[in-house]
Amino acid sequence: MKRFRIWLVVLTVLVLIVFISSCTRGFHSGTSSTGTTDNTFTIKGVVVTPDNECFTDICNNSSITEGEPLPNADILLKGNNGQILTGKTNCQGEYEISGLTDEAYLLYANRGEVWIKIAISPTTSDGGETNSITTTQVIIWEVVESLQSGLIPIKDILTAIPIETIPQNLLDAVKAVLSNCRDAQKDSAVIQLAKNYVKIHFHIPIAPSVIVTPTPTPTPTPTPTPTPTPTPTPTPTPTPTPPTQYTLTMAVNPQGGGTTTPAVGDHTYDENTVVDINATPAGCYQFVDWTGEAANPNISSTTITMDGDKTVTANFSARKAYNATTGTDYDTIQAAIDAASTGDTIIVCPGTYSENLIINNKNITLRSTDPSNPTIVTATIIDGGNSGSVVQFTGGDTSSLQGFTIQNGSADNGGGIYVNASSPTIENNKIINNTATDSGGGIFVKNYSHPDIKNNTITGNSANGSAGGGGGGIGMDGYYGSCSPTISYNTITDNTARSGGGIRVYYVCSPLISNNTITGNTAINGGGGGIDVNNCCNPIIESNVISNNIASNINGGGGIRVYNNSNPLIMNNFINNNITAGLGGGIFVIPNCNLLPNDVRPGGWGVGRENLPPDVSPIAGNTISGNIHGGGDENNGANVYFVN
């Protein structure tokens, strides 16, 4: 019995030795041809040991049954052909972690452990020789727990680790695994998975608390107590030094000559700031240059660099006359007129211009800066210097004259403005203190002329010369060709003439005279203190105020005289307080003149008649009152006197 027990012990020991030997044959110690290597390494503070169950053994081991899970494997691999790696029939190709085996799932289902997959990518094209590992990169992947269909999929954490930063013990561990993984068909080379890289898999040891099946609890490696890192004292952020600043002072010369950008005054800028500056002249000024440190002092838009306090002044000079169409400046109005083309506009700035202008068939606009502004009109003066007409329109001209004071002209006809065979527009002017020795102290219109004379003030002009003409304010003569001006909305006051103190219509002229104020004018020798119509003329005199005019001679017509085969239409006027030394304080009409019939009241002071039926009057719709004639007799016609 004792001998039997001894043999039993020996047999047991032999069985244990065989068992231990058979268990160790399936695992590699990590010893390569280069020597013994410690294959453990640390990732994220966890000691990791590579699984030395080389995948090549799967392909070489005839004991592996196709379709069965890999022995000693915690993971399933899927090749690039979509198959699960279960045997040597599909060993070649690219492999990814597909999921856990059922057994591994029980161990890891409730944990979010990190799995490590290391892909070695040789730089050579020899299928992955082990000597190429020193020139590769190691890509670390992370498995993120997501219990979908019982699998844990893989997520790339996109961390590329240069080979020189990989711990040497990690490289040695990989080399040890590779040295034991040989291709069954090619013993000299590492297994060729897709010819460009080999994937070696590792896993983290399982903690005892999560082991479902009885498994010996490994002795945990004590975690060294980390040395606390001292908190660095924060370096105080230095207070930024504010930039140096300088002042830019903008100015203009003369005041009112223009504006600047930036505006006139002081402005602050950081050092070395480049500031855009601009000068804009006022209407009657032009830019000259910059005084100061402008980059280009001779152009209106330039720059200045703020490397110190700066003062710049925009200098302007006053303009006289300029062509607004072309932008050209001129020293005289006449020079601007001579250079102008049809349709151009010439603008004259306020000031007094001693010139006698001739506008001959130019067909332009000649105006002040603001013809509708009485202040501008008063300040923009063309002075004839008593040496001829101030402005002449000739040669069929159709120009426009607007917004001037026309003064001190002296001529035979048209001391202020002379119009011959032309049809200009004369508008918004003051025509004052001009004289004519014949006709038209203020304006004279002659021969085939059809001007439009409107919104002017015509005052203080005279046609008192010995030549015997008339029209202190406006005179016209159609002796060589009928004229028909339109005279409207003018104020015609305090003018004197031999006849027609305000207006004289003479010799085959047919003007329209409407909506004017004709007051305070005097005919000193002839008739028509306000208006004189003489010698075959056919004017329309409508809707005017004709008052306080004087015909100081016995020829009559303090307000209006109609004379010598003329046929005016006089209607809707207010004719009041006019005086004559002769007949017709309001209107005096002599033989062979026809007026529009109208009903009037017979008899009474203020309506004179001679050889006319009491129910017929040669005027229509006028208010005629308060006029005085020298005789004071009703039959002589204080207001209206007709000779039939």
Detailed description of the structure:
With 644 residues, the protein is mostly beta strands. Among the domains are: 34-210, no CATH class; 245-318; 499-644, no CATH class. Helix content is 10%, strand content 33%. It contains six helices and 53 strands. The N and C termini lie far apart (190 Å).
Short description:
This protein is mainly beta and 644 residues long.
- In percent, how helical is the residue content? under 10%
The spatial strand order of the largest sheet comes to: 17-16-18-21-24-28-32-36-40-44-48
Secondary-structure-based class equals mainly beta
Overall 3D shape: elongated
Mean pLDDT: 70
Number of helices: 6
- Poorly predicted regions are 15-62, 64-164, 177-214, 592-618, 629-644
Major sheet, described briefly? 11 strands, mixed
Amino- and carboxy-terminal Cα gap = 190 Å
Radius of gyration: 60 Å
User: Strand tally, please?
Assistant: 53
Approximately what portion of the residues adopt beta-strand conformation?
A: 25-35%
Pathway: Protein modification; protein ubiquitination
Organism: Atribacter laminatus
Pfam family, one: Flg_new_2
InterPro entries: Bacterial_rp_domain, Beta_helix, Para_beta_helix_rpt-2, PbH1, Pectin_lyas_fold, Pectin_lyase_fold/virulence, SCF-Subunits/Alg-Epimerases
